[in-house]
Amino acid sequence: MAPSTMKALVSVEGKSASVQSVPVPTPGEGEILVKVHYVAQNPTDWKAMANVPPGRTIGCDFAGTVEDSNGSHWREGQRVAGFVRGTAPSPPRGAFAEYAVIESSLVFAIPDEVSYQDAAVISLAFATAVQALFQRLKLPEPSKPAKSTFPVLINGGTSSVGQYAVQLCKLAGAFVVATGSKKNHELLKSLGADATVDYKDADWPEQVRKVTHDGLEHAFDCIAEKGSPQQIAKALSPTKGGHIVAILAVVDAKDEVRQLNSKAKLESTIVYTVFEQPLRYGAFDNCGEATPEDKAIWEKYLAILPEFLTKGKIKPNRVREMGGMEDILAGFQEQKEGRVSAEKLVYKIA
Question: What residues make up the domain containing 183?
Fold first, then answer.
């Protein structure tokens, strides 16, 4: 039995958060209660903390054990991982806590050979890559890879999302071009990148055009700021244009992208649509109405993720363990200051 209260990282006045004692949530119909062992940090966590009223539980990515299976097919004590939309008010959600509630279909079984730390760093970033590549860009899926190879650009290949995108594109039969700093090119190649380009080179879009023989029509922008969609537009096929999906809202860049490449299409995607509820999320595209298809695709990939991990087809991000719940704010500061590169910060909760 879970206790009646738990520790959680909760938003407070002044765009911050503190560890507080709060009631343990009760799972409703179709939900389970998870005892959280490890959590992983994403930029969305500290961005959300600065934009919500006091009293919201922070955090998205978690790994733990089923505490209350609540009539689902999960066994109590079974190791599972997933992500929630941290700070969400209705239903209330947040993973940086000793217990978390989530829909029973939105976790995956952690294979025996995968640690809690590694399991914690997968869900949100992997789901973002799945949604961008297979739903928005409509690339062939790993279950039916392309018969003949085609180029895909992953901009920001060493970001959490980028690393999963590189691996998924490789499984889908693509010729994968990834941008990253020179020091991370070996990492990108180990994940399946066929060509690597240093985004610090002023002419990187031209380098991409060269390696793709002016044939690039699909790009996933895992940076989506500081003019990156415009740079990608320059890398697309000059005759056919192409489709860019971005990880942040890119309304302001759409006109410029069209000016640079009249046949280019630019849109953003927001992973929180996997929870199906109608969602307005800032200036993001692909949200607003209920999104049952987004949920169904995530459920499909959660079901096959354990096999991807067991067979080594998907490698989790590199992990750096930072301490416990009380150390999360220091981790937020590190990431804000740009001191987290090609790794994920994780925290031990239990």
Answer: 125-275
Same domain, yes or no, for 269 and 182? yes
Report the distance separating Cα 80 and Cα 63, nearest Å: 6
Residue 278 · residue 289 · CB < 8 Å: yes
Residue 73 makes CB contacts below 8 A (sequence gap 6+) with: 104
Q: What is the pLDDT of residues 239-286, one digit of tens each?
A: 999 999 999 999 999 999 999 999 999 999 999 999 999 998 889 999
DSSP-assigned letter for residue 134: I
Asked if 129 contacts 91 with a C-beta cutoff of 8 angstroms, the reply is: no
| Number of domains present in the structure of the chain | 2
Q: What is the CATH number of the domain that holds 213?
A: 3.40.50.720
Classify 11 in phi/psi space as left (phi over 0), alpha (psi -120 to 50) or beta: beta
Task: Tell me the chain's radius of gyration from C-alpha atoms.
Answer: 20
What's 325's domain CATH number? Answer: 3.90.180.10
Peptide bond before residue 142 is cis, with ω within 30 degrees of 0: no
Buried b (16+ CB within 10 A) or exposed e, 304-329: ebbebbeeebbbbbebeebeebeebb
The owner of tokens 């953003």 is: 268
Sign of CA pseudo-dihedral 184, 189, 190, 191: positive
What residue has token string 């096999």? 307
Single-letter amino acid code for the residue at 136: R
Q: Are strands 99-103 and 31-40 parallel, antiparallel or unpaired?
A: antiparallel
Q: What is the pLDDT of residues 184-204, one digit of tens each?
A: 999 999 999 999 999 999 999
Name 101's bridge partners.
33
The verdict on 112 and 228 lying in the same domain is no
Q: Are strands 218-221 and 242-246 parallel, antiparallel or unpaired?
A: parallel
Rounded to the nearest 5 degrees, what angle is found at the Cα of 326, between the Cα atoms of 325 and 332? Answer: 85
Same domain, 44 and 115: yes
Verify that 104 and 155 share a domain, yes or no: no
pTM assigned to the model: 0.98
